[in-house]
Design a protein that fits this description.
394 residues, alpha/beta, Aspartate Aminotransferase, domain 1, Aspartate Aminotransferase, domain 2, 2 domains, 7-stranded mixed beta sheet, globular
Length: 394
């Protein structure tokens, strides 16, 4: 018999993917340039030139098996060491290669981190709004995801509600900063307060509470905004990273888990991840991509377009009467819809070829997400459609 749990998941397909597919289909009818598709967070800027050069150099100079053969199950040692040194240099940490486990993107990193520190029946908390796939990442481990309501004033953490839900059943807290979908960046004050709360609860309950920090947007920050490195604040932190956004490499699926050297069994986390891989069929990311990103660790794509697009949309949305927290990073903006039913709101927008994502699956109804990783010219052309939509319906 087919696994009924997975069969049931077909009934709740990703809303984001469904809207992206709609946009592609509509594009075949009227030309995709005429569809204002704000659905999918797919980086829209080229990779750094140096990365292309590195890839060519590797293909021309390295042995074929080194590039295309299996890497060691825990990752290529030289790559792990380079990642550790880069993190130490940038954030004042004390990582060694043993603390780094290369993965297939941040999704693979979070999947491994969750299995490292939870058992079936444990609870994992996350904070709304949150990336919808967390439901699957957590619940498919046998743990149970519970969602802390959002602080809608600024999308920092509502500590009163978090503490209420932080019971002895909680094994981990999964956070995402800079945040998808809100674009909010947790401040130093937020992270210090969070660290103090988790430390206090660990002592009270007599067991570890791990902080899993999902950080694929760490490099996409706007003027005047700082993204503190989460692991600096709390020892039991597993940092989950991806080069999908910083280097515009989402299709290459390359990232890592970095275990804080001070965390419980920190020197064993990478080895445990290797054992987890045996169970979920991960079996290491591509060797050539590990070697390539290791040569450009401190570089990023030119991501200025994201801030430019954010400013255009933020100004227009607020002028039209939307309530919106200004993003500090990422390439998402998360306004409150002009009616309580965000699904109905976004459905009406489709008549204007505006593809917006309702917020229900992000854990807080009544909002919508716009992924503005598109050309600025297209953002500007979408504004008349947005104005007509608002004027004719609200």
């Amino acid at each position: 018999m087919i696994n009924q749990q997975y069969k049931k998941m077909l009934e709740t397909k990703s809303v984001i993917r469904q809207l992206s597919e709609f946009a592609a289909g509509r594009g075949k009818e009227i030309g995709y340039e005429n569809v204002f598709d704000y659905s999918l967070g797919n980086p829209s800027v080229p990779v750094p030139e140096r990365l292309t050069e590195v890839m060519i150099e590797l293909l021309q100079t390295k042995d074929s098996m080194e590039l295309h053969g299996y890497s060691p199950s825990l990752g290529i040692p030289s790559v792990k060491e380079k990642i550790a040194r880069s993190l130490n240099r940038r954030f004042g940490m004390n990582y060694e290669g043993i603390h780094i486990f290369p993965t297939t993107g941040a999704a693979g990193a979070v999947a491994h981190a969750l299995r490292c520190v939870t058992m079936p029946g444990d609870e994992v908390l996350t904070i709304a709004p949150y990336f919808p796939e967390y439901d699957q990442y957590v619940n498919m481990t046998g743990a149970k995801l519970k969602v802390v309501p959002a602080n809608t004033e600024n999308f920092q953490i509502d500590f009163e509600k978090l503490e209420e839900m932080l019971t002895s059943k909680v094994a981990a807290l999964l956070i995402n900063t800079p945040n998808n979908p809100s674009g909010a960046v947790y401040s130093k004050e937020t992270l210090k307060k969070l660290s103090g709360l988790l430390d206090r609860k660990q002592k009270e309950y007599g067991h570890d509470i791990f902080l899993i920090s999902d950080e694929p947007y760490r490099e996409i920050l706007f003027e005047g905004v700082e993204a503190p490195y989460v692991s600096k604040f709390y020892d039991n932190t597993l940092s989950c990273y991806s080069y999908s956004k910083s280097l515009s490499l989402p299709g290459e699926r390359i990232g890592y888990v970095a275990a804080n050297p001070k965390c419980r069994d920190g020197e064993l986390i990478s080895a445990i991840c290797g054992q987890i891989s045996r169970g979920i069929g991960h079996n290491c990311p591509p060797s050539i991509m590990q070697l390539a990103v290791a040569e450009v660790l401190d570089q990023t794509s030119d991501m200025q377009v994201y801030e430019r697009n954010m400013n255009i949309l933020y100004e227009e949305l607020t002028t039209l009467g939307f309530r919106c927290v200004k993003p500090g990073g990422t390439f998402y903006i998360f306004p409150k819809a002009l009616e309580e039913d965000a699904v109905a709101f976004c459905k009406k927008a489709l008549k204007y070829d505006l593809v917006l994502v309702p917020s229900d699956s992000f854990g807080m109804p009544g909002y919508f997400r716009m992924a503005y990783c598109i050309d600025t010219e297209k953002v500007e052309r979408s504004l008349p459609a947005l104005r007509r939509f608002v004027k004719e319906n609200y």
